[in-house]
């Protein structure tokens, strides 16, 4: 099954990559003076960056798409050729962006190759399109389903992602194996636009951004803070159930800590530097908790009897993300994590992994999210990205894979997706629209404890290096909140909803009864409000619906006399009249059980 899927995915990637070349051909046919940047495959499609002399419009995409379909009809072939450095300089003499890439590849001693495609222009004249590319591509455009792709949008993109470089025009396209799959995706995008957490977050009043505070630094409102707190509370309950205890650590530390951990060399450019008025020492706002947790472990002598030691932390973290990459709550400069680190013996690894995986499963079931597991390994071709020796990586990867196989856990493999210090068991969730998010993770680290010279005394009295397990249940509560807004379309389950019930008296005459209901619900722990009786009943009911409040409780004379309420559920519709005490019990059970 997985082999067949991988085969389909590999072919689809070739199609998408080839479509990016066809897009470049179509652009050059209409704008011969356009300069080509890069055109890689991305999730669900492809893009190509261009340097145009004059701006192009969204309307131009329709014409470009038509040209691409005509090119497909020509049954064009893609031919790969390996070239020398001097040949490449001559071929791309009028292509400055390609020349820059050639110089970089040459310095790194990477092989240079091109793809050639012979095509006919509007005047039926044969021309040769050449692009610097390592592939892979399809052999012939016969392999492309002409009704399975669509050009979607234009965007600005700095060359190589650096604000110091020129802004180019990026054309995005999507491509699938059939017209039906394309239509499904376009329909999903339409629904995703309605659910956009940036839009819904503003409408529901959950968080704000301020230019005075800075980009990527969210301010949570009363209601937003409630949702965030409930996510943290649930994660805390789950990790406490398997022996994790919470600590509190500072938001910054000396650079020396990150030099020992290895993060200084790998991540320095993504960290915020802190300057002291009284010291010349270099400090950074921390982008992760793990190095500080090693110092909690190192603060005492440890015995094999003390292990495992499980540390949890919700301290704020900071990463210097590029302004163009910030996106609502899903890409921030300030966030926290339901972060945990376990220091254990080698014989305890399996049990620790399985217990963490179990609470992750409970969390995702509660949130109503499907998932699959990816074994994230290092890329042996790019060892410079990682810490530690190959033999250590081989050992840790083998150990992790054995856990998955012994417990008959299905998984896919992600080469190059490992952390810098070790392989990971990543849990990839699927939201209600089928979109994939990497949220939960369990990571095996044989490297950091050694770098910090952490030890414990074994049964024979010898000093042994502990194993370090990094884990997150839902990752960043802030990022997860953004994902949940879209997953639920803003209609949170009752336990997560900032306002769980709203009392709507029919008129001012029932206001005292509404307050009586309010007090009883409030005392039982329900988050409740009373709708202003000065507005019309219809308007107040509509406003409760727009706020996506789980329960609207209508109170009139009849309900007052019967000590009842007329219940309307946002999720289930009209439930009718219900005894007040019965409703209070039922809503509290729903909240307690996180239904």
Task: Give the gist of this structure.
With 595 residues, the protein is an alpha+beta fold. The two termini are 34 Å apart.
Structure description:
It is built from 18 helices and 30 strands. The protein is an alpha+beta fold. 37% of the residues lie in helices and 25% in strands. The strands form eight sheets. The chain has an eight-stranded mixed β-sheet, with helices on both faces. Strands 1, 2, 3, 7 and 8 form a five-stranded antiparallel β-sheet that branches. The chain has three domains: 2-184, Threonyl-trna Synthetase, Chain A, domain 2 (Threonyl-tRNA Synthetase, Chain A, domain 2, 2-Layer Sandwich); 202-250 and 287-487, BirA Bifunctional Protein, domain 2; 501-592, Anticodon-binding domain (Rossmann fold, 3-Layer(aba) Sandwich). 35% of the residues are buried. α1 packs across α2, α6 (197-203) crosses α14 (477-487) and α7 crosses α14 (477-487). The radius of gyration is 29 Å and the shape is globular.
Blueprint of the fold:
Blueprint: H1 2-30, E1 35-36, E2 41-42, E3 45-51, H2 60-73, E4 79-83, H3 85-91, H4 96-107, E5 112-120, E6 126-132, E7 149-158, E8 167-175, H5 179-195, H6 197-203, E9 207-208, E10 219-220, H7 222-240, E11 245-247, E12 252-254, H8 255-261, H9 263-267, E13 273-274, E14 283-285, H10 290-298, E15 309-313, E16 317-318, E17 334-335, E18 339-344, H11 349-367, E19 370-377, H12 390-406, E20 412-415, E21 424-430, E22 436-445, H13 448-451, E23 456-457, E24 463-464, E25 467-472, H14 477-487, E26 501-505, H15 511-523, E27 528-530, H16 537-546, E28 551-555, H17 557-562, E29 564-569, E30 573-579, H18 580-592
Parallel strand pairs: 11-15, 19-20, 26-27, 26-28
Antiparallel strand pairs: 1-3, 2-3, 3-8, 4-5, 5-6, 7-8, 9-10, 12-14, 13-14, 15-18, 16-17, 18-25, 19-21, 21-22, 22-25, 23-24, 28-29, 29-30
